[in-house]
UniProtKB/TrEMBL annotation:
This is AraC-like DNA-binding protein. Residues 161-258 form the HTH araC/xylS-type domain. Transmembrane segments: none annotated. It comes from Pseudoduganella violacea. The keyword Ribosomal protein does not apply. It holds the Pfam family HTH_18. PANTHER family: HTH-TYPE TRANSCRIPTIONAL REGULATOR NIMR (PTHR11019), TRANSCRIPTIONAL REGULATOR-RELATED (PTHR11019:SF159). Keywords: DNA-binding, Repressor, Transcription, Transcription regulation. GO terms for molecular function: DNA-binding transcription factor activity; sequence-specific DNA binding. It comes from the Bacteria.
Amino acid sequence: MADLTLDRALVDSADGPFLFVVAGRSQDTEFAQGPHRHARGQLFGSLQGLLSVGIESGVWVVPAIHAVWLPPQYEHSVRSHGPFNGWSAFITEAACENLPKQPCTLRVSGLLREAVLRASTWPYEALDSVREHVAAVIVDEIRHLPAETFGLPLPKDARLLRIARALIDNPADERDREQWASWGAVSTRTLSRRFVDETGFSFTAWRQRARLLRALELLAAGEPVTRIAIDLGYSSATAFINLFRRTFGATPAVYRERLQRGAAGE
């Protein structure tokens, strides 16, 4: 089913094949879907470009070497950044019994990628024995691939969540920790302690991560590296490039090339 404009009723039906895959054509314009959910579990990723995925507990930025698993009925929103080509596998709730119960990001293996691409060519009909085997491979890969952290967890405390969302909206905001604590009506000590408790990151590390994930979105959208550095509040393009390289193992320019090439270029 090589078309993302499928009948939405299919992703909410337990009838038909227990797994089917849709793949979209390359598109130059960004797309966005607001909060929604499916009765089927969903594994989705990109062949080219970058996705950001919003769930209740956080925001994930997903390059082509990763995929997102969402259990059935899990509310989420999706947005692409820059030229994009993606795919989605939908699995009936019954077939999700032994799959992760919480959303997670997975590093896409070569086996999973090839199985998904093959399944994307199938018509929407009952699976024969050969196709059932390929579909089982996809399910097994979801079950066994290690989950990876490639997102921005959100705090649950309402005061901290307000601060976090303000920083997501404007990662370049230069207010220091004390100023943010005052703005959020929380003590500096509580801000520091609870950010670690609820996100696993210190406030400073979380803010740095928010900036770097926004940098990925801006790279995918074609923004120049120097402009990204300035817009995100770095002291210089060199400082931004060095931090980016330490975090992602490549310079922003090289990472942009990988996004443009897609998973096949990894």
